[in-house]
Amino acid sequence: MSTLGSLCNLTNFLSIFTLVNCSTSCMKYEHCKFYPGHHLDCFGRWVGNGKKQWRCEWEPGTSAHRNTYTLFKQQGEYCGAKDNISSQNKEITIFQKRDLTVLLVENLKSPNCTKAVFKGTPTDLVRCGPPTQSSFLRHSGILDLNVVWMKHEERYIKDFNLKYTTMGEERKVYAKLFKGKNGRVDGLDSSQSYMVQIKCDRNSDCSQCPWSHSYIIPPELKTKPTLIHLEKTNHPTAKGIRLVTITWQTVEIDKLDGYFINVQKASGEPPKNQFNTSEGAISLHLSCSAFTVHISAFNNVSVSPVLTRNIENCDAVTSMGAERLHVTVHSKTSFTVQWDSQLLDSYNCYSVEWSRKNQHKTEYLSFFEDVASNKTVNLTESLKPYKRYMLYLHTRPKKETCELKHVNGSESTYGSVQFYYKEGTPISPPTNISYNNVTSSSLVLTWSPIPEDDLRGFLLGYIIYYKEYSSRDTSAAEKVAYVGAETTSYVIEDLKPGTGYNVEISGFTRAGTGVRSIKGIFQTCTQVYMKDTVIIMIFVAAIVLLVVACSIVKRMKAVLWPSLPNPENSNAIQKMENSREIEQLKMLQTLQVEEWHTNELLIIKEQATVSVPHLVTAESKVCTRASVRDSDTPLKSLLSPQTAFTCGYTTMEMFQQLLTFQSSPSMTQKARERLIQDDVGETKPGQSDVGQFSSSSLFDLSTTF
Ligand SMILES: *[C@@H]1O[C@H](CO)[C@@H](O)[C@H](O)[C@H]1NC(C)=O
Ligand SMILES: *[C@@H]1O[C@H](CO)[C@@H](O)[C@H](O)[C@H]1NC(C)=O
Ligand SMILES: *[C@@H]1O[C@H](CO)[C@@H](O)[C@H](O)[C@H]1NC(C)=O
Ligand SMILES: *[C@@H]1O[C@H](CO)[C@@H](O)[C@H](O)[C@H]1NC(C)=O
Ligand SMILES: *[C@@H]1O[C@H](CO)[C@@H](O)[C@H](O)[C@H]1NC(C)=O
Ligand SMILES: *[C@@H]1O[C@H](CO)[C@@H](O)[C@H](O)[C@H]1NC(C)=O
Ligand SMILES: *[C@@H]1O[C@H](CO)[C@@H](O)[C@H](O)[C@H]1NC(C)=O
Ligand SMILES: *[C@@H]1O[C@H](CO)[C@@H](O)[C@H](O)[C@H]1NC(C)=O
Ligand SMILES: *[C@@H]1O[C@H](CO)[C@@H](O)[C@H](O)[C@H]1NC(C)=O
């Protein structure tokens, strides 16, 4: 400082400010030009313990580089100077009660030096803010903001001001004052960007409150991303690991900065890992556990509504290590899970997860085990009887702690197994029972499985009960067939033709047999030679024949031999009878031929069809297809023209009806003719038409005569 010292004759004019008597100061800077571009500014700030620190700041002047600055300050008669300053700010010490004048000179020794002056009253120079940090959150047209002030000044700042400007074509400026550090502005246009500035509110401790820079508040994200695709595939090499790829999209693509993805086990076991990505896709390596994924778009002021997606447990469970994994239930609050002891060579960290099937609440236990290949779990919530539980055993590679650190790629599933605390019997029968491909001796029974919730145990199989349906013989033995649990159809064989059968079906578990289905009734197809029916028909025919014969005999007896003592010995009677019979037969033949060749019969036939709709239905259907809905009562189906039993009818009432009609074709031609002749006045079209039934394959008895 020799130069300056000699110039100004100052004592102690060294590297620290020294107070000097200004009258003795030498200010050889008059030749320097004033340069307002220096923006010389001096102020105080709170620095803790109620103290303030003062400093001056400035910008460089005209000279391009290697500038040195000289700072002079004056407070009344007290002056000070600091030379050779290479930075653009300087801390100073001042008297707080005296006005301050500061002079800055750039490159004092140069002919091209510049200078700037600052004047102020220290009490007006205490500066607070702007905030060091501000955070914003937009939602539902609201902007929430939080400001953080410098540590030592925050106790002096009571309120703050907010200025926000719309960024559309028309700029509107709004201002608001908030108490404390948080504020809320409502009624904003969600789709609009805003510009925001913040400053503290002036008070005696903070006499200066400069505005912050402008924060740009982008639009609010309001739409939930939509899932495009979720794909689960097995890991190509690692067993028990799934590759899960999720892709999604959103319409607000231009407003966002990226997506947050949260992945957590559905059981609630930590951790809850957050990933962020700017892509609309993520790929994860997960175990067979159930997971919950949350996806939302974000920008720096808002987060969109969340898309939540569950990743279900692996479903191909029974094939996965079920043979290596066992659960032994001890009581309703305790069970032991046991696994292959070889697993201990590779893993010591395990996780057991169990839940009631189709329920989302999953419980878990993760543990370290290096001795036993089993683990007894004590439950806080007791197991429910008759409910199916699903248990998974997962392995974790990390040795130190068995807690999961990352959901991605750090767990694999060893196996899964289902268990019951207590098994029960099925409370509902198989549904959707139908009868197909009915023949005279067999039929195919098909059904849909019992809903799993109704099983109440592991289904071991189905029991099919069938029995001849007959009101005459109620003691008919019930036959029983057992089929495996995987089966949903069964061929009932060795049935009697043209016979009605009752069928019931139920499932069974280890606990026993479940509820039987409603009785289904079907009839096997009738064969050409139906033993039972034929016998009945012959019987009826014989009676009719007898009646006819009797009346003929009586008439003859009365006309020819009114007082013949022993007609049995006469050949004449027999001859006459024979000739009469032949005559009648001839008559009948002519009549029949006439009938067959007239349209009249056809008309009659149609009428008959109308009068016995159920029979016609039965005939017109071929023995190929039949089904009974559970809700149909046998009787109802029988009486309905759309009867489901193509091969027959099973109520006695029905059977009798049939018999009535069938009795006619079962007669001999002669007997029929006799009937027609005798009851000519009462003959109904349907009765005269009885011959048509002979064309029925079902009731065709003509072949027997
Ligand atoms: C000015 O300061 C610099 C370093 O800050 C130093 O190297 C230089 O010697 C000083 N000049 C004078 C004249 O004291
Ligand atoms: C002073 O400024 C003039 C013109 O602006 C320039 O020519 C000259 O070199 C400068 N002198 C110094 C020492 O920088
Ligand atoms: C938000 O991000 C945008 C750029 O995406 C940026 O211009 C703006 O200043 C940021 N606003 C805040 C409040 O961080
Ligand atoms: C997103 O993740 C990257 C790296 O994982 C991180 O640097 C960044 O801060 C995250 N962004 C947000 C908004 O969390
Ligand atoms: C999950 O882990 C796999 C394999 O280490 C990796 O390829 C994938 O990028 C990871 N996913 C995330 C979201 O980190
Ligand atoms: C579990 O394993 C230990 C050690 O191998 C054995 O002593 C114990 O009997 C096992 N417990 C059960 C319930 O299997
Ligand atoms: C479970 O309970 C039994 C007795 O109630 C106890 O001996 C055992 O240590 C418990 N096991 C655990 C893992 O808490
Ligand atoms: C019925 O028979 C047909 C032809 O023989 C066959 O294709 C069909 O599968 C059978 N239906 C049932 C249920 O067995
Ligand atoms: C009944 O069977 C039909 C045809 O086989 C099937 O489409 C339907 O889903 C079944 N209903 C039930 C309840 O299983």
TrEMBL record:
Residue spans crossing the bilayer: 534-553
Gene3D superfamilies (UniProt xref): Immunoglobulins (2.60.40.10)
Cellular component GO terms held in the UniProt record: external side of plasma membrane; receptor complex
N-terminal signal peptide: 1-22
Pfam families (alphabetical): fn3
Domain Fibronectin type-III: 429-527
Family matches, as SMART domains: FN3
A GO MF label: cytokine receptor activity
Record keywords: Disulfide bond, Glycoprotein, Membrane, Receptor, Repeat, Signal, Transmembrane, Transmembrane helix
InterPro entries: FN3_dom (IPR003961), FN3_sf (IPR036116), Ig-like_fold (IPR013783), Type-I_Cytokine_Rcpt (IPR050379)
Record protein name field: Fibronectin type-III domain-containing protein
Record organism: Knipowitschia caucasica (Caucasian dwarf goby)
